Each structure stands twice: as C-alpha cells, then as structure tokens.
C-alpha cells in the first residue's frame, strides 16, 4: 500500500519547497508536486535526515497518496495559475478534502473560489504567508481565513510550523470569507510604508547630514536594540555593512534607485480608497515607488531644478541641530512607523464590519509578532491595546499608545520641517504627521469645503446646531 502522506504541496518553488520541508521537520509526512523533475529531486535532497518527504511529477500521484481529508496547498503565481490548478485537482479530490491557496491572492478571487468550491463539498481556505524564504523554512507568520472547518483540520500542522513568540504560534484564524488574504494584503501595505519611511530617514541622514555607511550601520544597529527593534531595522543595519565584491564599494551605493509597486501594496491603497479609509502613509509609499520608476525623467529634472536644496549649509550636519539629529530621526521614524500600523489596523477594523469578515484584530497583531517581515516589538503594545479593547476603531484612541506618540511627535515635526525646508522628498514622513494631526483635530476646515460643494452643486450640508440636511441659495 502506498504511503499515506499528511500534507501535499502544489508548486515546489522557493516558498513551496521550504514550507513543505518545514512541515516534514515537525513530524508530518510531506509530499510535493511539481512538473519540473529537477525541483522534485532538489526537494527530496534538501530534506532533513529522518523526515518523510516525497516529490512527484503528476497530481494524480500526489492526491492518491494523501490521507483523507486531503490537505493540499497551492503555492503558484496568483491569478489564472491558481484557477488552473484547482480545475486540475477537482477530478482527483473527494468531498471533504481541503484546498489551500497560500499565495498573495487578491481577496475577491479567494471569495470567488470559496463560493465555487463550497457547493462541490470541497473546503477552500486562503492563507496569507509572510516571512520570505527563511520564514517559510524555519517558522513563518500565517494568516488563515474563511472556511472554519478547514482551519480546524489544518490547525495542528500550521501551529507546529509557525514562528513562536512567548510560546504562542504566529498563526490564528483571521475571520470570514477572504479575511486571511485581506489581512496579508494590509500587512504588505504596512510593509510598504515602513520601508519607505526607513528610506526617507536614510536619505536625510546620508545626503543631508553626510553620514557614511559605516556610521549608518552603527546607528541602525543601536536603534535595533531599543524601541525600534524590528526585522526591517535589523536588515537595514546589515545592508549598510555589505560590500560589493565587484567594485569594493558599499553594495547599497551600487543599486539603482528604481522600485515597482504592482502587487499587494498597491491593492491596499486602491481598496482603502474604495472603502473610504484614510491610509496616507501607505498611499505615499506606493506613490514614491511609482515616482522612482521615472529614473530618466528624474535625472533630467534634477539638472533643471537641482538648486532646490540650496538651503543646506556647507556643513551637512547643520541641517538639523547636530546634538539632536540622531535622536530626532529616531523619534520621527518611531512615530511614523506607529502611524503606519495605526492606518493599516483601522483599515482592518473597517473591513471587519463593512465586508463582514469579523476579523479578530488581536489575532492579526498577534501573528505578526514573529516570522513576518513587519515583526516588531511595537506589536506587543498593539496586542495589549486590543486585549484591553477588542473593538477599538483606531489605536490612537488607546491611552498607552497615545502617550508613545505624544512623547515623540515633536521629533517628527522637526524632521519633516527640515526635510521640507531643504528639498528632501519625505512624503511618507509628512503624510504620517498629517494623518496624526488630522485625526487628532476636533474641527477640520472641511466646513468650508461643504459650503463650496453646496454653492456649485447643491450637494447640501449639515449644521452644527441642529439635525438635517440643508441647502443655501448662495447667489
């Protein structure tokens, strides 16, 4: 009789192979399919001694050797390839089997697939997976959502292979429908924002204050030992110390300043606009990637407008007060990173109700504490805030978090001011500050906007002294 395997994987690329090897390392029998026999052979060779793994080159071989209910994860490029795999699996699986999409899938595609498979008796679940190649191999953060029956069947395996923080696995149920992929999408939007914020602080310190890469390595390393401790700060410190083997220069200085934004970060921004949720720091992070792509135009424009930074003194360190430069940049980055999380979590709060996902927000920040790209000591603070008030619509309403922000907001103001005065593009930092100031202002000037709209379009307005909608004949 054929070996009965516990978990199957379709797609043995970097993520699929490493995740499946992780499954095998935790005592489960793992079988993987890939059309490429080289990939299946490499998968078997990479297995830890004593684990039970097998690579096959037909879906029939894999499905026939899985114990029921079959647990089959798909890790192929998002979009049509996922649909193609599902159609190929349907003649082979039985009612009660579980199909998992572990890719970065657009959440409405996950809903569509769930609704397509449910009447056929197939459990379908979307799982966001974060942590990259290393996380997949040794402990990712995972965000499953949707089919609760599928989650219960998968829980023993997923809890075993997930990263652990304080003994808790970094995986939990994210809510109804496509909640898993939606939470992962917002995770990636926050990731976009934090990366852009770090880049802006780097630009101010490097070009504005004249710090070299060795100094930046030391500075970011020290920041990673305090309240800014996080995966992205840690790897940034490492990057500054890496030398290019070809030229001997620091590698970061040899990398072209162009980046793309075709994936989940862009989706986060688009969907937030549709939902009417303000996430300006994430929006700006996407915008800055789009602007970075205009390299040749930027170089030409720099020749024409190159004197915009004439305000910087001959001594770059005087851009900010030399004694407070590093502290101000640290405080500014810390505060702006908090704003990025605040905006992302506010978006999840809205999706939880408006899209009927019923997302347990404490679970989202709990599973982000380890294994994922945006893991940070700050997440423990957010987790505690949600334990105090699970329904809080915005983390700025939590008094503990509010104090962290008010203690550091003046550093953000100083850095944003100096960036603006000296021509440094610091849009994410600026938008983080604007979000804070707007959200914490009891009366905004939009009363004038409402008057304007009523003036030219009879859109009506509400009054401060009584209920109802009103229109004025302005001329």
Sheet of most strands? 7 strands, mixed
What structural category do the secondary elements indicate? alpha/beta
Strand order of the largest sheet: 3-2-1-4-5-6-7
Low-pLDDT runs: 310-314
Number of helices, where a helix is a run of at least 4 consecutive DSSP H or I residues: 20
CATH architectural arrangement of the largest domain = Orthogonal Bundle
Number of E-type strands: 9
Helix proportion range: 40-55%
Describe this structure as you would to a colleague.
With 475 residues, the chain is of the alpha/beta class. It folds into two domains: 7-173, NAD(P)-binding Rossmann-like Domain (Rossmann fold); 184-439, N-(1-d-carboxylethyl)-l-norvaline Dehydrogenase, domain 2. Helices cover 54% and strands 8% of the residues. The chain has helices at residues 14-25, 37-45, 59-64, 80-89, 107-117, 132-138, 148-161, 179-208, 213-223, 231-241, 251-254, 264-275, 280-292, 295-305, 325-354, 361-367, 378-388, 399-421, 427-439, 446-457; strands at 7-10, 30-33, 53-56, 71-74, 98-101, 123-130, 141-146, 164-165, 168-169. The strands form two sheets. It has a seven-stranded mixed beta sheet, sandwiched between helices. Strand 8 and strand 9 form a beta hairpin.
């Amino acid at each position: 009789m054929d070996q009965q395997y516990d978990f199957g994987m379709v797609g043995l690329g970097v993520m699929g192979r490493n995740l499946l090897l992780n499954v095998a390392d935790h005592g489960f029998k793992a079988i993987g399919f890939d059309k490429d026999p080289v990939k299946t052979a490499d998968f078997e060779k990479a297995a830890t001694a004593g684990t039970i793994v097998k690579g096959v080159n037909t879906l029939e071989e894999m499905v026939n050797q899985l114990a029921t209910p079959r647990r089959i994860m798909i890790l192929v490029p998002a979009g049509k390839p996922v649909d193609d795999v599902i159609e190929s699996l349907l003649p082979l699986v039985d009612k009660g089997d579980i199909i998992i999409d572990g890719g970065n899938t657009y959440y409405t595609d996950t809903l569509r697939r769930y609704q397509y498979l449910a009447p056929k008796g197939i459990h379908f679940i979307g799982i966001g997976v974060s942590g990259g190649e290393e996380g997949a191999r040794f402990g990712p953060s995972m965000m499953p959502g949707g089919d609760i029956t599928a989650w219960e069947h998968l829980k023993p395996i997923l809890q075993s292979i997930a990263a652990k923080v304080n003994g808790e696995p970094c995986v939990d149920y994210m809510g109804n429908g496509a909640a898993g992929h939606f939470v992962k999408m917002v995770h990636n939007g926050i990731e976009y924002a934090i990366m852009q914020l770090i880049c802006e602080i780097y630009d101010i310190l490097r070009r504005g204050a004249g710090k070299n890469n060795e100094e930046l390595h030391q500075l970011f390393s020290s920041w990673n030992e305090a309240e800014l401790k996080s995966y992205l700060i840690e790897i940034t410190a490492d990057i500054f110390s890496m030398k290019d083997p070809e030229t001997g220069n620091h590698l970061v200085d040899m990398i072209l300043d162009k980046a793309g934004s075709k994936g989940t970060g862009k989706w986060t921004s688009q969907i937030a606009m549709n939902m009417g949720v303000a996430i300006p720091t994430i929006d700006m992070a996407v915008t800055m990637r789009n602007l970075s792509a205009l390299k040749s135009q930027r170089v030409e424009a720099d020749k024409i407008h190159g004197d915009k930074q004439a305000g910087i003194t001959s001594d770059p360190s005087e851009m900010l007060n030399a004694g407070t430069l590093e502290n101000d940049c640290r405080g500014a980055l810390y505060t702006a990173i908090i704003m990025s999380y605040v905006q992302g979590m506010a978006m999840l709060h809205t999706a939880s109700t408006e899209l009927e996902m019923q997302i347990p927000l404490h679970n989202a920040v709990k599973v982000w504490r380890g294994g994922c790209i945006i893991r940070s000591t700050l997440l423990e603070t957010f987790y505690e805030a949600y334990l105090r008030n699970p329904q809080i619509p915005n983390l700025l309403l939590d008094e503990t978090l509010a104090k962290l922000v008010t203690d550091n907001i003046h550093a953000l103001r100083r850095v944003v001011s100096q960036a603006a005065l000296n021509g440094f593009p610091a849009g994410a930092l600026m938008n983080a500050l604007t979000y804070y100031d707007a959200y914490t202002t009891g009366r905004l000037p939009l009363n004038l906007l409402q008057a304007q709209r009523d003036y030219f379009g009879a859109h009506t307005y509400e009054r401060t002294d009584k209920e109802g909608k009103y229109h004025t004949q302005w001329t």
